[in-house]
Specification:
Number of strands: 14
Structural class: alpha/beta
CATH superfamily of the largest domain: Metallo-dependent phosphatases
Low-confidence stretches: 9-51, 70-76
Strand content: 15-25%
CATH class of the largest domain: Alpha Beta
Radius of gyration: 20 Å
Largest sheet: 7 strands, mixed
Strand order of the largest sheet: 1-12-13-11-8-7-6
Distance between the termini: 59 Å
Mean pLDDT: 83
Order of helices and strands: HHHHEEEHEEEEHEEEHEEEE
Bound molecules: 2-acetamido-2-deoxy-beta-D-glucopyranose
Number of domains: 2
CATH architecture of the largest domain: 4-Layer Sandwich
CATH topology of the largest domain: Purple Acid Phosphatase, chain A, domain 2
Helix content: 10-25%
């Protein structure tokens, strides 16, 4: 940590301690959402109370994001959607789903397995694929943040690991940590430490997978669509919620069956501490198109499974908030459409 950072850090701790850290930010919710969303039972999000020790940890883990600095530097972006979620949550259906019989499956195996695709979903492995026990299946989905910094050697390693897995279809999208994957990124807006890092067009190293960038792929008639954008400033694939983020979701095809994004939608397994990091426009699309499944990660704190009655939401992050792998993939089945839709 160089001296300006130490000073900035101490200054911010001071601000937070006096409760003044939030005054700079007109959009910030003064009474953040602290209760779990209703009518859930057994919610996976338990929010620990906030301490200065957490601030120190956050600083090392998230850099200045843990301290809320983007709120000051990027005043255009609301950064979280707490106020909106508080307004709309009463009308949302949220039922927490649990894995069955301690397996990775969130549903019972279908009787006639040949009519279904078995799908395995993971996300946010952060260079630790070796720590995840991946069940076999027809399709393996990785919803981004395969690396920490888009490191060349780690991309080669990830590709080799994917090559060894038996799944006939492997679908991967980028996340905010894949530095170099976003050809439109303004690199001067990265955290200073990140600016020299990454691998330009690093996805080209991923020869053993199907890399999806605003693209769809049909497998046995089932349409999968993948897209990496998120609202966390300073990283690849960042889009401003007031300008750009809504537009990228316009590319999602209305007949999508399995939506893969790095960002959560608003309100569904998207809590970072007390802040809703999910995207309102993504939620609008999901509610409109009603894909059977929506797979994402990004917010490690909110790993879990949920349904609104139409769509099953899976935050498949394999890392915990401290980037430590937890080895907890998801498995589900989706009916093939080959018979009805040749
Ligand atoms: C919730 O739904 C009810 C009944 O449809 C409607 O009257 C009310 O305006 C809705 N509230 C919000 C905040 O959307
Ligand atoms: C799951 O595993 C835990 C710990 O091994 C055990 O206590 C529990 O009974 C198991 N639950 C089921 C449904 O098998
Ligand atoms: C648990 O359930 C899954 C899904 O139905 C099934 O594939 C698996 O065989 C079951 N495991 C045991 C030990 O019963
Ligand atoms: C990139 O960001 C910098 C710093 O905010 C800004 O000055 C510059 O105009 C941006 N460049 C482009 C091409 O948007
Ligand atoms: C199974 C498989 O296709 N493995 C390939 C993974 O990618 C490396 C590098 O491109 C190839 O050498 C492997 O054959």
């Amino acid at each position: 940590m160089n001296p300006p950072y130490v000073l900035l850090f101490l200054f911010l701790i001071l601000l937070r301690g006096r409760g003044a850290g939030e005054c700079n930010v007109p959009t910030r919710n003064k009474t953040p959402l602290r209760t779990p969303p209703e009518p859930t039972t057994n919610t996976p999000n338990t929010e620990p109370s906030h301490t200065t020790k957490d601030d120190f940890l956050d600083f090392f883990i998230y850099g200045y994001y843990g301290l809320g600095l983007p709120l000051i530097f990027d005043e255009v972006d609301p950064f979280h959607e707490n106020e909106l979620w508080d307004l709309i949550k009463a009308n949302k259906t949220q039922i927490v789903l649990h894995k069955i019989n301690n397996s990775s499956a969130i549903m019972a195996e279908p009787k006639d397995k040949s009519r279904y695709l078995k799908v395995v979903a993971i996300s946010d492995t952060h260079n630790q694929m070796a720590g995840v026990t991946i069940p076999d299946g027809d399709v393996l989905i990785h919803a981004g943040d395969l690396t920490n910094d888009g490191e060349y050697e780690r991309l080669v390693e990830f590709n080799n690991q994917m090559g060894l897995l038996p799944h006939p279809h492997k679908l991967v999208i980028g996340g905010n940590h894949e530095l170099g994957f976003d050809v439109f990124e303004n690199k001067t807006k990265r955290r200073p430490r990140d600016q020299p890092l990454g691998t330009e067009e690093g996805w080209k190293l991923l020869t053993n997978v199907t890399y999806l960038l605003d693209q769809s792929v049909k497998i046995d008639g089932v349409k999968f669509y993948g897209s990496p954008y998120h609202a966390l400033p300073g990283f690849p694939f960042y889009k401003n919620r007031k300008n750009g983020l809504r537009e990228v979701w316009e590319r999602v095809p209305s007949d999508v069956d399995v939506l893969i994004t790095h960002s959560p939608p608003l309100g569904y397994l998207d809590l970072f501490r007390n802040d809703r990091w999910g995207c309102r426009y993504l939620l609008e699309k999901v509610e409109k198109y009603q894909p059977k499944f929506h797979i994402y990660g990004h917010v490690h704190q909110s790993y879990g499974a949920m349904t609104n009655g139409k769509t099953t939401f899976l935050n498949a992050a394999q890392c915990d908030p401290k980037n430590k792998i937890q080895d907890r993939p998801f498995v589900f089945w989706i009916e093939k459409k080959t018979g009805t839709n040749p």
